[in-house]
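Readers outside the structure-tokenisation community will struggle with the description of the input data as it stands. For illustration, here is how one protein appears when written out as sequence plus structure tokens:
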Amino acid sequence: MNFAAPYFLFGTLLAGFVGLLLVLGGLAANRRVARFGDPVRMRALFTADPAKRRAWKGVLLVLACALTFIAAARPQYGKGTRLIPATNVDVVIVLDYSKSMYARDVEPSRIFRAKVEVARLIKELDGARFAAVAFAGEPMSFPLTADGGAIAQFLRQLDPNDMPVGGTAIARALDQARDLLRRDPKSSEHRRIMLLVTDGEDLEGDPVAVAQAIGGEGTTIHVVQIGGRTPERIPEIGANGEITGWRADKRGKPLTTALTTEGERQLGAIALATPGGQIVRSDKGTTGIDKIATELKRQMKTEYGERVETVFADIYYYPLGLAILLLIAEVFLTDAPLRTFIKKSPPLSMRSLSLDAIRTVPQRGPIVPSAPPPPVPPRTAPPEPEVKRAPA
């Protein structure tokens, strides 16, 4: 048994305090009865003794109060394990969208394969936060988010033809990725990683100097180098995604992409300028992103905080339900038994006697009303006697 919020158990002391108040109230009631008169004679005047019922009501109330606080402490029972992914890792995907990424030395194309493997990397690094920078001559960015699917969708819907400025400005892209990490308030407390996926050297700026500044802040840059020194023709891709021809210069000579010795040295220096940075060169038919994904997944398990956690099942609803039932029982338990008013019928012997008395009553004829008495004449006063007077 485990409690997720054990400090609520101190609330059971309140239940004990409620019980103490109820006991003190009962003792005070007995003292008041004793002051009024003899307790024995006083109780004889009561229709019912509520002491036992009130005691049970108090017990139910105290138990319900204690169970409520136990439920608030979230009791947990049972044991299991689950994998808690590392959530303190921020990864910025810096993906090259120059026209040379249309080359098909990696099937079906460099850019298509890179987007698929980046989406797989995002799915495998469960728990990490991601940001994205799509770049050619100018970078386009997506801020840090825990929604890896949004990052994968952002990169999937773009193509090299969508980039407003052509070229391969690695220095600008790395600086943009650095700005994304700076603007996020939580990133300073997290492990920060940049994954640069490109097929060429920087045509402007100094990406190595930018990488050194980024490494000084504790951020690691892994470089995935797509393509090699073998020249590869660059197809012309239409709006429907189909090949419409091959790119050529003004003289009609086919344009090819190949990584020079200087460019390869530059990409290696970018990775080595940061702590723990690695460079992976693509083999024939692969990009090498899967190797970086495997390494990052291993580091998240061993170094970046992925762990196995013991979990318990919440069973707070059991004491909470019992508390509710006790409160309902306390409401319906009255201080005195309920009175029942039943109209008692007379005994059977009395009913038979009444019937016999009715049968023995003599029968009488119908009652005929008599004539009204004659009216009584009004009484008049007798006449006064006549008084004769003597002559004078």
User: Anything to note?
Assistant: The chain is about 40% helix and 20% strand. The first strand starts at residue 2 and ends at 3. The mean pLDDT is 80.
